[in-house]
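Worked example

This section walks through a single chain of length 156. The input is the sequence exactly as stored; nothing has been trimmed or padded.
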Amino acid sequence: MRGKVSVRFRQQGGALAMATLVALGSAGTARAQEAADATSMDQRVDAQVVAELEAEADQSSSEAGALALSQSKSEKGDLTGAAAVLERYLLIDKNAIEPRSQYAVLLCRLDDLQSGKFEGAKVASEAPGSEALDRVKAMCGGVTDLSEYTGGGMEQ
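Given that input, the structure is written out below as tokens.
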């Protein structure tokens, strides 16, 4: 009798072990498929992000486009994105007054007063007494004295 019980237990145990292995194998396959789906999704998201960045770069390649895109981002609450748009444009045209003044204002709104005042000082040197400078002074509480950076006020 003992032999029959032992054989039956082994058969049942073997069947249980086989069922467990099949279940684990199925779970592994499912996880592998989920990982493949996630990778595919990541690639689609990456492609979408790249397309959006390229569109932004195209739009912000002109002063009017950069100002409009920055304004749009600012209205949506994306102050960092708005500042980044203007910063990119200022790499193209470092003497642009309106983008620089808006950039300075955004920096001050982002609590980077030192950088905002410094950018405002650049506006002051290019357009003293302008409305653009007045907006910077109002938002930042003044502008930096550039003579501290240029060796007594002379251009370097």
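What to look for: The chain is about 80% helix and 0% strand.
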